[in-house]
Amino acid sequence: MALPGIAGFIYIESKGIPKYDVAAPDIEIEVTPEKLQRGEKLASMLCASCHMNRETRSLSGRWMTDAPKEFGKIYVPNITQDETYGIGNWTDGEILYLLRTGIKKDGSYAPPYMAKLPHMADEDIESIIAFLRSDHPMVTPAAVEDYPTEPSFLTKFLCNVEFKPFDMPKGKISMPDTTDQVELGRYLVYNLECYTCHSADFTKLDMMTPENSKGFMGGGNKPLDNDGNPMVTSNITPDKETGIGNWSKEQFVKAVRFGLMENEPALRVPMIPYTQLTDYEAEAIFAYIQTIDPIKNDLKRSMIEE
Ligand code: HEC
Ligand code: HEC
């Protein structure tokens, strides 16, 4: 990525975050008890880490103190069903369109730090939307006002130049074959966005073909903990010396589901234990990891004193 000269700088500063046409599909998602359950599980793993407000215990938003400083001062908005402050007046189609493409209801592009789900199966993404509209306490209306975000120049630059909205998928995206552990594991690594943190650099991700992200799963990226301290992400490629090539399946499942490490302190924020995953799903991630290219990248954990 080359930063622009002064003319480009002025152009991007004045243009800000780009806007696009909104072509939200006119749909109404069918709600079933299975979808609500699946949606709760996915939203808890995938949306709550950013949108959860600890005081209201709902997805009513918060300052994203764990966003790398170079992105600016970021506020994560209220996505409860409140009609004034939340997304109570968004249609199913508008939510789907944002999650697939990155384009919000008002046409503006949601910067790279907001999750995008171009690979998620239709059934799973519909489950998330059904859950967002349910009577679960995480999403029932909470009248909490958003603060304005102050995106940095880098964020505006990335939104104008590096990251473009994705197209809506051309056809149906089916659920992974859960009997094929590698396929299921790949699906989870893509959609739970393990690779966004565990690759080399947030600004060098390839979300359409995650394997092409710089240093795919080789760690070294530095998301922040809740106090703003950089936390080096681990190399989780199958490299035997510097990655997890010598780990057992059991050791991996314990680390991913519960943050538990052998002879080392437990994993810390922003690595949030994926307790909602089943052992089988965590094992599938492990099976998929065995198939990716090992990367030599010797990293030390960031051990921050309490
Ligand atoms: C890494 C943090 C992060 C994750 C994970 C995340 N979001 Fe967001 N989300 C944001 C931020 C920050 C914004 C505001 C973007 C902006 O400024 O345009 C946002 C915006 C939104 C909006 C637009 C709200 C509005 O009022 O404009 C919706 C809807 C949304 N997110 C839903 C979700 C859902 C559903 C998930 C889980 C599938 C999710 N988000 C996961 C950070 C996150
Ligand atoms: C928000 C960023 C983030 C996401 C998303 C994330 N991780 Fe992590 N992960 C980290 C950080 C940071 C550490 C190191 C924490 C520490 O040192 O205490 C870590 C540590 C680990 C470790 C320990 C490895 C070692 O050698 O120490 C494993 C295994 C792991 N993550 C797997 C995963 C998997 C699988 C996913 C997706 C399901 C995932 N992570 C998603 C940030 C993340």
TrEMBL record:
Xref: Gene3D superfamilies: Cytochrome c-like domain (1.10.760.10)
Keywords: Heme, Iron, Metal-binding
Record-annotated Cytochrome c domain positions: 34-136, 180-293
SUPFAM superfamilies in the record: Cytochrome c (SSF46626)
Superkingdom field: Bacteria
One term of GO molecular function: heme binding
InterPro entries in UniProt: Cyt_c-like_dom, Cyt_c-like_dom_sf, Cytochrome_c-type_DH
UniProt-listed Pfam families: Cytochrom_C
PANTHER family tied to this protein: BLL4482 PROTEIN, BLL4482 PROTEIN-RELATED
Protein name as catalogued: Cytochrome c, class I
Organism of origin: Fulvivirga imtechensis AK7
